[in-house]
Amino acid sequence: VLYCQTHDMAAEATSRLKRENVLGFDIEWRVTFQAGVAPRGVATVQLCGQELCAIFQTSAFGASQPKELADILADPLTLKVTFGP
């Protein structure tokens, strides 16, 4: 498991994960339980391959999200799978 809170750590993790054809995918955010209140942004993104699980603390990056993370999420050749309704 690699917990990414810096751009360097995110670059290392994504360089290893982009070798995978299929990645497990999950996101977490702090839930708002008030009607009429906009949902909060994503706090963490988790991507897991066969040999690495990377947790990206997106809330730590602020407005400067890692381009490598956006690239791997947008890559149509890498299948992202999840479980849930």
Summarize the structure.
27% of the residues lie in helices and 26% in strands. The protein is of the alpha/beta class and 85 residues long. A hairpin with a 4-residue loop joins strand 3 (44-48) and strand 4.
Describe the SSE topology.
Layout lengths: L1 E3 L2 H11 L4 E7 L15 E5 L4 E4 L1 H4 L5 H8 L4 E3 L4
Parallel strand pairs: 1-4, 2-5
Antiparallel strand pairs: 2-3, 3-4
Describe this structure in words.
- The structure is a single chain.
- The chain has 85 residues and is an alpha/beta fold.
- The chain has helices spanning 7-17, 58-61, 67-74, and strands at 2-4, 22-28, 44-48, 53-56, 79-81.
- A hairpin with a 4-residue loop joins strand 3 (44-48) and strand 4.
Features:
globular, 85 residues
